[in-house]
Design goal:
The chain is of the alpha/beta class. 38% of the residues lie in helices and 14% in strands.
């Protein structure tokens, strides 16, 4: 496998947190030369989470920042900004996820970067876009899960709205940003020049909910909170089994209904007219559950999964992260990679197999300012110039 397909592409990564760093890392996975610009205070994600972060950041930072080099820059210093200008002039892509207007205040808005490199691909990941009444509001995955409507559909039907337990919108926005950058790189090959890209968390969240938004615009019906049941199918959702564990089951087609009944030993239920169609089963969900829920609780998950899978019914255990990693068959599906770090040996990589292989961590997540001297030398600064920049505080190296 050629892991360095984007080896001729240089990315200036001016991001912090989740969405921007992960987008840059995915490009690094594909072989791009990613240079992370880190201020002296550091990317806040380094210290987020539980426990003290190590020199290379906490597990979240490690997962989001592999395959890039890190240069420490004081962006409030004229010398530091001069370094970034030189890096941008030699780059193909600039990615940022600061609040709208911040890059321009720093001297690196789209127009300035385009002046430095006419065919630059300039990609911002923002909360609410670059314009409009909400553009200046601070944003995060948690806030956008609320504002976008995602939380309104998560939780029990009569319960409170709930947050998805990982940065769903940030991760989706990162992937949309990478798609856009790859599109722009392809467009540049055909003579279309650079591009100005913005992926907002708001738009990313709405795109994830495209079915619910479209149904509301077409019918006026709001997508409901479904709890552990799929509102469009029955039976479909989470069911408790013996031992307090849960499995999930989904009967997609009416042709599967009688197979499901046979797997449960309820052949007579297959002929019940109330449940002959999916619409009937959805409409009579309470009556259906009254019949199948007690039965499912009577046997362990292994018993039901074996019978349901034999009947070709969609089903699976509701696992924890530990359960997934302990299952060799599931672990074999995953892009687990070696980080090369002493305290965090493995991390989850990008999910794409390319010519049969997942991407590797050619570089572990960097320490703050780890590659400052190296990157400055590549940018054409002499040894004496580098030392003067470090002495002046325009740039800095890692604190060991």
């Amino acid at each position: 496998m050629n892991r360095k397909i984007l080896s001729e592409v240089r990315v200036v990564d001016m991001t912090e947190g989740v969405a921007g760093p992960y987008a840059a890392t995915l490009l690094g996975d594909m072989g791009a030369d990613v240079i992370k610009i880190e201020r002296r205070e550091g990317d806040w994600q380094r210290s987020a989470g539980r426990g003290e972060p190590g020199r290379f950041g906490n597990p979240q930072f490690v997962a989001l920042n592999r395959n890039k080099r890190d240069i420490g820059i004081d962006l409030n210093d004229a010398g530091g900004r001069g370094i970034v200008e030189r890096l941008v002039s030699k780059a193909d892509v600039v990615i940022s996820n600061y609040r709208a207007g911040v890059m321009a205040k720093l001297g690196f808005g789209h127009e300035r970067c385009q002046a430095l490199k006419p065919d630059i691909i300039y990609c911002t990941v923002s909360g609410f876009g670059q314009d409009g009444a909400y553009a200046q509001l601070p944003a995060s995955d948690t806030i956008l899960q609320a504002v976008s409507g995602v939380m309104s559909v998560v939780g029990e039907p009569e319960g409170a709205p709930l947050r998805v337990g990982f940065p769903l919108i940030d991760m989706a926005a990162a992937n949309y940003a990478v798609q856009s950058v790859l599109l722009a790189l392809y467009g540049r090959l055909s003579g279309q020049g650079g591009a100005h890209i913005d992926v907002s968390l708001m738009a990313a969240a709405a795109a994830l909910m495209c079915g619910g938004f479209t149904e509301y615009m077409a019918s006026g019906r709001l997508p409901p909170r479904q709890g552990n049941q799929n509102s469009l199918l029955a039976p479909a959702g989470a069911f408790e089994v013996a031992g307090g564990r849960y499995i999930t089951i989904a009967v997609l087609r009416d042709s599967h209904w009688k197979k499901f009944c046979a797997a449960l030993g309820l052949e007579a239920l297959g002929d019940d007219r109330r449940f002959a169609s999916n619409a009937g089963r959805v409409g009579n969900r309470a009556a259906l559950h009254a019949l199948i829920v007690p039965l499912l609780k009577s046997k362990p998950s292994e018993y039901w999964l074996e019978r349901l899978r034999a009947a070709d019914i969609l089903c699976g255990p509701i696992n924890t992260v530990a359960d997934v990693l302990a299952d060799p068959a599931l672990a074999a599906c995953l892009p687990l990679l070696d980080t090369g770090l002493p305290d965090i040996a493995r991390a989850m990589g990008a999910p794409m197999r390319y010519n049969g292989d997942f991407f590797a961590a050619e570089r572990p997540s960097p320490a703050k300012g780890q590659h400052t001297r190296e990157v400055l030398a590549e940018a054409g600064y002499t040894h004496a110039e580098i030392e003067r920049l470090l002495e002046a505080g325009s740039a800095f190296v890692e604190a060991c």
